[in-house]
Automatic annotation (TrEMBL):
This is Bet v I/Major latex protein domain-containing protein. SUPFAM superfamilies: Bet v1-like (SSF55961). Residues 13-26 have a biased composition (Basic and acidic residues). Residues 27-176 form the Bet v I/Major latex protein domain.
Length: 176
């Protein structure tokens, strides 16, 4: 029997190709955290974000143009909603699965589809409403993300957007 012996160059090329493939798979990830001081109770704010998303287009129409329930109910854990919004002057769409924690007054949005999911593999935004006084609270926003590839821009504009959304909703909650 004759055996073909692989050259060292062929092995080196294979190893190099595997290294490059591994580097492409390792995309950047990160977490942004911020706190937004709000007027009104944590309960009022949590209720608005938990079960009153249909009010968002009227309350913050410059950000949110529509919100529709794709699966579930407005206030159900695991509900899937579709948001039409404007980011940096451009219309975008976001489909998310909702997770609710009534004990900690936390609403979590897990990205499923939409413009942002073209750039990100992971999009998880937590809004936790923490009481600070009788008529004030903070919204602690934690935004965890992972890019699809290193060429995608950092999603800092999405963090600015959701922070602005929480702050701008404050006036509407106070009037309610």
């Amino acid at each position: 029997k004759h055996y073909k012996r692989r050259s060292t160059k062929t092995k080196q090329k294979q190893v190099e190709a595997l290294k490059q493939e591994g580097e492409r798979e390792m995309a950047t990830s990160g977490t942004y955290v911020t706190e937004v001081p709000l007027k009104g109770t944590a309960e009022k704010h949590y209720k608005r974000w938990r079960s009153e998303n249909h009010i968002f287009p009227d309350a913050v129409g410059h950000h949110i143009q529509s919100v529709t329930v794709h699966d579930g109910e407005w206030d159900s854990h695991g509900a899937i909603k579709i948001w039409n919004y404007t980011l940096d002057g451009k219309p975008e769409l976001f489909k998310e699965r909702r997770e609710l924690d009534d004990e900690t007054k936390t609403v979590t949005f897990r990205g499923l589809e939409g413009h942002v999911m073209e750039q990100l593999k992971v999009y998880e935004a937590n809004f936790q409403f923490i009481p600070k006084s009788e008529d004030g609270c903070i919204c602690k926003i934690t935004f965890a993300w992972e890019k699809r590839n290193d060429d995608s821009p950092d999603p800092s504009n999405y963090m600015k957007f959701i922070k602005s959304l929480a702050a701008d909703m404050d006036d509407h909650v106070i009037k309610a």
